[in-house]
Amino acid sequence: MPQPNPFKPVVLCLSGHDPSGGAGLQADIEALMAQGCHAAPAVTALTVQNTVDVTDFRVLDRDWVLAQANAVLGDMPVSAVKLGMLGSVEMVDTVIELMQANPALPLVCDPVLRAGGGGSLGKEDVGFALRERLLPLALIATPNLPEARILAELPEGSADECAAKLLPYCQNLLITGGHGDEADIHNRLYCKDGSQHDFTCARLPGSYHGSGCTLASALSGRLALGEELVGAVRSALDYTWRTLRDAEQPGHGQYVPRRLPLDFCS
User: Domain named Pyridoxamine kinase/Phosphomethylpyrimidine kinase: which ranges (predicted)?
Assistant: First the structure.
């Protein structure tokens, strides 16, 4: 009988399901496979969306989400937890309960508040609940600049201004760029010890569906593999840029990152 492979870390993913496969749990699974990790996906919400936009969503019952997560935690040696769409304050509270019961697990929080097409993926009070109660439990939060502005309540704030507002709530904060018209994209890592790291990459043409999910999942995988934080961020950003460079357009809207090479399973 095959024995469990101790060299393949398990990452518990608490995210929404995207039926287009561009974002959400499918993005988590593919990005973690590419890092050499095993994804354990627990569904937090169901969405009606495609590569154009999201039109509706339904958050699952908290008991179902707890049951999914605890089934994994009771069976597998989970090395990290990755958060995606939560969608409601009740689901924020559900994750807080899980993390308080498992405080040693590094938590990567991707504060999914809007889809790439602009549609909302959470009620107005979710951002406040994330900032006040969940971000303090995370090893790192990975908002893009529009999400950081929502969390910081600074509609026109720069990355530095948002970081100044959010760092009292975060251990570490990665604010990703690409939402302006700058020639190069600047991704900025702000650490609790006061250090700051700027990662620059070339801007790619087009817009992408699932880039934030890809980045946060890759980062959780690198941390699960034992990389230190700054190196893990660099590895995850490099991987994500390559998935966007090779992205495909399966629908009528945004491009979808190619998270797995064509010969991955050969």
Answer: 18-254
Closest CA to 122 of 136, 140, 134: 134
pTM over 0.90: yes
The answer for 79, left when phi > 0, alpha when psi is -120 to 50, beta otherwise, is: alpha
Burial annotation 71-91 (CB, 10 A radius, 16+ → b, else e): ebbeeeebbbbbbbbbbbbeb
Evaluate the CA torsion angle 9, 23, 139, 191 in order and state its sign.
positive
Helix (H, G, I), strand (E, B) or coil at 171: coil
At residue 147 the predicted structure's pLDDT band, cuts being 50, 70 and 90, is very high
Environment class of residue 212 by beta-carbon count within 10 Å: exposed (0-12), middle (13-18) or buried (19+)? buried
pLDDT of residue 266: 40
Q: pLDDT tens for residues 153-208?
A: 999 999 999 999 999 999 999 999 977 677 889 999 999 899 999 999 999 998 99
CA distance 191 to 244: 26
Strand partners, 173: 141, 190
The closest of 211, 214, 175 to 191, measured between CA atoms, is: 175
Do residues 200 and 126 touch, judged by C-beta distance below 8 A? no
The two tokens of residue 254 are: 């945004």
pLDDT in tens, 80-110: 999 999 999 999 999 999 999 999 999 999 9
For residue 38, give Cα distances in angstroms to 142, 159, 202. 21, 33, 30
